[in-house]
């Protein structure tokens, strides 16, 4: 049985799922962390962890964030775009798509540092009517956003903000938040996430 948590169907998704599966097993082994302990720390069910490690699940970005935080890592560690040497080059074919919207939108994790104090660089594309919701990141997490095309509506807690093309924003995202395209054109934005380890 394959558990679908995110909307993805292509070969890139399979490659990402294989990398996530292998990396979580590796890091859990290195940290001598049982499935029960990881489940308790992350709030992710043991059954879901078994499915992820068995490469039978397609975990959402929010779920990967919870697992990374619980393990003192970054999502970039899981998908192998975390820079460890002085310089790490990441080819276009190595950049994973970690979310696909129902209308063709996408979220690509371009690069990131290794956790627990991590910084990630994302590129998002939202088509009209698409929304991505996040339950919130660990306390103190901040995001820097720059809209290259279209208009992005950012909701943090119960307040919404409109960010037009060419404009930027800084947001504390340790509360529930969402990125929405309520306009008529494509919204393209770059986002940097900064999260301090526990």
TrEMBL record:
Highest taxon in the source lineage: Bacteria
Keywords: DNA-binding, Transcription, Transcription regulation
SMART domains: HTH_XRE (SM00530)
Keyword Methyltransferase part of the UniProt annotation: no
InterPro entries associated with the record: Cro/C1-type_HTH (IPR001387), Cupin_2 (IPR013096), Lambda_DNA-bd_dom_sf (IPR010982), RmlC-like_jellyroll (IPR014710), RmlC_Cupin_sf (IPR011051), TransReg_Diox_bact_type (IPR050807)
SUPFAM superfamilies attached to this UniProt entry: lambda repressor-like DNA-binding domains, RmlC-like cupins
Cellular-component GO terms for this entry: cytosol
DNA-binding among keywords: yes
GO MF term list: DNA binding; DNA-binding transcription factor activity
PROSITE patterns, sorted: HTH_CROC1
Residue ranges constituting the HTH cro/C1-type domain according to the UniProt record: 24-78
Pfam family, one: HTH_3
Protein name per its UniProtKB record: XRE family transcriptional regulator
Organism from which the protein derives: Pantoea alhagi
